[in-house]
Design a protein that fits this description.
Chain lengths: ~260, ~260
């Protein structure tokens, strides 16, 4: 048996999310189906982050073990030859036998893209949250910074969740507006929020972004973030931002 | 009768191009169908640039006349309410009666996006040409500059075309690599070619890009561009780059 670690990018638009579900196509399910073919047995794939339906990944990390010997480069090509073009293996490497992409991770970085413009862009509708109207970016950026450090994020978890351990450390939480840039079909009007931390609760990033947008609209003051964190009350946080703007950017490991 | 000028963005992936065809959905056809409903008569729409199938627009300009009086803002909203989300009207304004978006234009700018990486990006496959292998960007950038100025572009036109007037002036022709940038899902590995001129022949930008990539691969030297221009021989230019990387960025008018 050899263990492997792969890094994946996927366009989450048409999937039910990372995790295998009773119906619909999941990234985990796609990988397990292809690996079962390659290894001629059922292979369990674990992921570093369980991205929800419609959420994208630029650098998801997954792990699994195979009985048949295979070189990582060959594995990577074999997977890409069988996976749909919406899912690509960016790299593959051998991993220690006990490698667990989720529990071994040191940090994860998520990015959320907001397009603040009057008209929806044909090029951004799958990859950003379209927010019209004026947003106070200084207030949003100031609020974003308040999330850095050790906090109890209970107030930002999904309505249905009841995680017991809700304290996490955020190493960085920054919001900035992009100036017009050639790199995107239309790069003006884009607001980028990026957060790096040692762990995330379900819907946490999307609830943070929903709260930041309410602050940008002037409905809450910037320091509302501090009150929401202190309260642990989900009723005080803003709405959950839609999945299409969210990207799992990268996962780091201490090794 | 009032004349209007509208600026449009569209994702060209699923269309047969700007121009109405015997079969398939065209941008011109979509607009004419919606305007026929609004004005209760057949309305002819002309465009500044006839983008081919799969080519995108960030700032296409179109013109038409309506019998019914309508404020430009109302027109813009009415069009966006009826057009598919892949096509968006960015702005609308009244235009002089004789306005012709194509013949009145002073310059057009096209952008071509190349993604130079080993693995195809799930986020870029509709919006860039995936080119693997090493490219000599300095040679490509030097070659791009040789297209600036007055030239006869006969060698770069489509195989079937026989335009008589093939002299054009290029005001700018530049190629650059983007450094990693937050503005795109994955901004590294992107090469942006941008060209502004007073007119373009059919397939001209895509044949220029095909030639630049051959230069980048070391198959031709940089100054091959000068020889191709001087020869007027289509056999000397490179292959036609695929449509998905091409964007009509903007059209300018003298007034």
């Amino acid at each position: 048996m050899s263990s492997f670690r792969i890094t994946l990018a996927y366009d989450g638009t048409d999937f039910v999310g990372w995790q295998r579900q009773a119906s619909g196509v999941s990234i985990q399910g796609l990988l397990e189906d292809v690996l079962r073919e390659l290894d001629d047995r059922y292979v369990v794939v674990t992921g570093a982050g369980r991205t929800d339906a419609g959420v994208h990944a630029l650098g998801q990390v997954a792990g699994f073990s195979l009985e048949r010997p295979i070189a990582p480069e060959v594995l990577s090509r074999a997977l890409n030859a069988r996976l749909p073009p919406e899912v690509r293996v960016l790299s593959a490497a051998e991993a220690p036998q006990a490698f667990n992409p989720r529990f071994d991770s040191y940090s994860k970085t998520y990015r959320y893209r907001i397009r603040n413009a009057e008209v929806v862009s044909p090029f951004e509708r799958r990859y950003s949250w379209h927010v019209s109207g004026i947003l106070d970016l200084d207030a949003m950026a100031a609020a974003a910074r308040l999330l850095e450090g050790h906090h109890d994020f209970a107030a930002f978890q999904a309505a249905g969740s009841n995680a017991q351990m809700t304290k996490r450390e955020m190493f960085s939480s920054r919001l900035r507006k992009l100036s017009a840039d050639l790199s995107v079909p239309r790069g003006d009007d884009l607001i980028i929020y990026e957060i790096t931390g040692n762990g995330f609760l379900r819907y946490m990033v999307r609830r943070i972004v929903g709260t930041l947008v309410e602050i940008g609209r002037g409905r809450y003051p910037s320091d509302r973030i501090t009150d929401v964190l202190a309260s642990g009350d989900r009723g005080l946080a803003g709405p959950t931002a839609p999945p299409e703007g969210l990207f799992l950017v990268s996962v780091t490991y201490a090794r």
